[in-house]
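Re: [help] complex structure
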Amino acid sequence: MTAGAGAAAAAGGGAALVVSIAGVTKRFGEGDVAVSALEGIDLGISSGEFVSLIGPSGCGKSTLLRLIGDLTSPTNGKVLVNGKPARRARLDRDYGMVFQAPVLMDWRTVARNIELPLEVMGHSRAARTARSADLLKLVELEGFATRHPWQLSGGMQQRVAIARALAFDPALLLMDEPFGALDEMTRERMNLELMNIWTRTKTTVVFVTHSIPEAVFLSTRVVVMSARPGRITRIVDVDLPQPRTADTREDERYFELVTTVREALRGNEDRSASAAARVRAEGLA
Amino acid sequence: MGSASAALRRRRVALAWILLAVALVVVWEGAKWLFGDPWRIHGSLLGLPIDIEHIPPFHSRIASDLSLPHVWLVFTAFVDPAQRQGSPLGLILAGQALFTLREALTGFALGGSLGLLLGIGLVHSRLAERAFVPYVVASQTVPILAISPLIVVATKAGWLSVAIISAYLTFFPVTIAALRGLRAADARAFELMRSYGASAWAVLWKVRLPSSVPYLFASLRVAAAAAVIGAIIGELPAGIPDGLGASLLNYNQYYTSGPERLWATIVMCSIVGLGFVGLVRLSEWLLTRNRYRPVEALAA
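Output below.
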């Protein structure tokens, strides 16, 4: 699968498209100082998929995620979420967002942090409390409902952030390096927990990471991107059996796929290195 | 975070307070011992006659009995009658302090709300902020003494016009702190609210105001002290006889005949200011304890 293929074809299946991105470019700034962050992005994500965006810093993977969430707008092209323009989908609360930092409100208890989106959406108090109790169970934080975020460890805080994103049962979960700030052991445990949650909630997930093992372990597809300008260079289908468990990490196929993604990323490097060499050569000529 | 260490810390703070007060008295009287006027204690204690005379080795006008009356004279001034056959000065000052405090509290409430509302308005419009803030700053560079007669004459509202002068000094720190505090939340918290399709109103109530609370309280402490100063100064052109301003003016005029009375009035002014600031501190503690991240946890 190469970049530039149609979004529908990129989805690789007949299921309904949750995310459909066609011919998207994103530039920051104007005129001579304009920086091209994304060029010619086409991507379709079907319902129930777990898609990781991976690439070097500056490849625009976070920008791509923010485009899906309508936290920024494309310079050209179209972003559809659940068949609607991204802005409409945001206002319809079609997705939940998790950032690298948990971004919890210090002054709210854990339960009331989880209830924040429900409050904004005007759910009744009874419905909110019932929902946050369920979610606390889902992320295994029962008994922490009345604590404040600053009394929790980093991993626990991120679990609260995930519970909050799931509070209004969105069909789509956008995650921007959610475990990037955690240590390796906590990260692996959180990966397993996220897999459990994903299996149970059937939510479609778009996940930004720069960890290759994490991307392979979690995803049904890994989207490999290159930097300057940000492009999709390869999409790797991850055909590891579901559900993923701790044993998945010892599967031979897992190692093969990690290598495939690594080589795809290195291919980018070689290409940009040769491009740089070409530029130098032209400069000398 | 343990309560035992918290109790220990409180006891240490109290001890430091007392030590500082004692140090102040020692420095004050020490200066008088070295540089002040000659003094004599002549009398009897438990039937024993006491007769001490001290002539300081140096002399400086700053430490004279006129500039720095003895600490005990300031204290006895509170007990001594203000006028012949009148009630003690302390009692009169306490009554005036309550009057001034009422003006200050009203001014604080007026100015604090105005300051916060102004901050909320300005934080929602960069244009308004750029246009308005220079005027807000300029308003504070005008000496309050120049403006207060104007307000007193224009409003003719007695103690209420004094409260307005007090409000004039109060709103400024609150506006500045609000402008900072209402933007203090993590940029991603605003994106999070955006992802919920939240209204500006919801963002204000659920993110902006709660995250501005620590900033607001810091400014309210400054504002409380400013409110007292504003009230006292406002009383002067208003010619209000019931507040501490009247005593300040009065004992300023009769300073040479009784400096300790002016000092007693100054002490009373400080007590009002300290009490007010303490009240703000107390409400901050009641409102934020166990809710906001403690300062030690921030540093950790």
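Chain B touches chain A at residues 186, 188-189, 191-198, 202, 206-207, 210-211, 213, 288, 290-293, 297 (CB under 8 Å).
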